[in-house]
Design a protein that fits this description.
Helix content: under 10%
Radius of gyration: 19 Å
Strand content: 35-45%
Number of helices: 1
CATH topology: Neuraminidase
CATH architecture: 6 Propeller
Number of strands: 28
Largest sheet: 7 strands, antiparallel
Shape: globular
CATH class: Mainly Beta
Number of domains: 1
Order of helices and strands: HEEEEEEEEEEEEEEEEEEEEEEEEEEEE
CATH superfamily: TolB, C-terminal domain
């Protein structure tokens, strides 16, 4: 793993970390749609900004560190247009954890589609950039980082010695087009989504590889890739229920979540709609998802982070000052929900622990 240790990088990270100590976010009331939410979020729970100053944050994941006696861990997250994975520690420090996290060739300006920071084009702070970095991140059972390289069009693993191993880059001999989210089942099998969004021209790009989109899986040893879901036009986020008997997958810009029963061999069946959020006209898509120990789903969506019961009932909405991208439970008790939202990372305390 290539880490930055130069004085220039240190100055850069200090600049990013301005405001890194948690500050109140723009005051917006949590929408409490069901009394059951009180068991998940205290009435006094407040959204706080953790750190800001990035291009497009995604893939946040809490990493346990037992050697750290005070904080017991740290947060990793992708900044897609920077093509970097950052590390944030609870003392407010930010550093570059991994360079070229997504697209790794020298011509990175040719990779990724053109996007913007979510502001109106007339806003002086409006910015455009290319989405050439990594997207989803997760950890395997051995504590190794698994990366959905997105513009890199593969699923990679960072070994304990820092070596980068490509676990999956092709399906039926053709390259993936934009590996988006990734989760690891307890048996070690790796599940991930792929669409055309890792390409400059998306599905019309002449460099397009596989001619399908979907949800795939691969062994931790690499090798053969199998497609397990093909009924979502633009799949995005993934998460298993706490007992891993259900796989939840959402439709990205289509703004819904499906549920699938997981067979003993890891394949899925009985796909059905869990919840459709399209009646909410606020901006935002269903993207990153996590579950708590009772199986409630926390997903980015229109207007912020939605909390959905295992039965598909809407329990509440945590409004965000920016469009949300991903969520992760962290801190030693896993009762802090960290939220990646465009230029910033936010957090809010929960009453129930999340599933790592």
């Amino acid at each position: 793993m290539k880490r930055i240790a130069t004085a220039l990088a240190a100055i850069f990270c200090i600049a990013l970390a301005q405001g890194a100590h948690a500050e109140p976010a723009a005051e917006q009331q949590i929408s409490r749609l069901d009394p059951a939410l009180d068991a998940l979020l205290a009435p006094e729970a407040k959204l706080e900004m953790v750190v800001t100053g990035f291009g497009f944050t995604e893939g946040n994941i809490w990493v346990e560190n037992k050697k750290d006696k005070k904080y017991k861990g740290y947060l990793l997250f992708s900044d897609i247009p920077a093509n970097v994975v950052y590390k944030w520690t609870p003392d407010g420090k930010v550093s570059v954890y991994l360079e070229k996290a997504g697209y790794q060739k020298p011509d990175s300006w040719r990779a990724g589609f053109e996007f913007h920071n979510g502001r109106e084009a007339t806003d002086p702070k409006f910015e455009k950039f290319f989405m050439n970095g990594s997207n989803g991140l997760t950890m395997d059972r051995q504590g190794r980082l698994i990366i959905a390289a997105w513009a890199g069009r593969s699923i990679d693993r960072i070994e304990k010695n820092g070596k980068r191993t490509v676990l999956a880059s092709t399906f039926h001999g053709k390259q993936f087009n934009g590996t988006n989210d990734v989760v690891v089942k307890r048996d070690g099998m790796i599940y991930f989504t792929d669409t055309c969004d890792g390409l400059r021209g998306r599905c019309k790009d002449p460099k397009r590889g596989i001619d399908t989109v979907g949800i795939f899986r691969v062994s931790p040893k690499g090798g053969e890739v199998t497609q397990i879901i093909d009924d979502i036009p633009v799949p995005n986020g993934l998460v298993f229920s706490p007992d891993e008997k259900i796989l939840y997958a959402n439709g990205g810009g289509k703004r819904y979540i499906n549920a699938y029963d997981v067979n003993p061999d890891g394949t899925v069946k009985n796909g059905r709609l869990l919840v459709d959020l399209n009646d909410d006209k606020a901006p935002g898509i269903t993207d990153g998802m996590k579950v708590d120990v009772k199986g409630n789903i926390y997903t980015t969506g229109p207007g912020g982070v939605w909390i959905i019961s295992p039965e598909g009932k809407r329990l509440g909405l945590i409004p965000l000052p920016e469009l949300g991208g991903n969520v992760a439970f962290g801190d030693p008790d896993y009762k802090t929900l960290y939220i990646a939202a465009r230029s910033s990372i936010y957090k809010i305390r929960t009453r129930l622990a999340g599933v790592p």
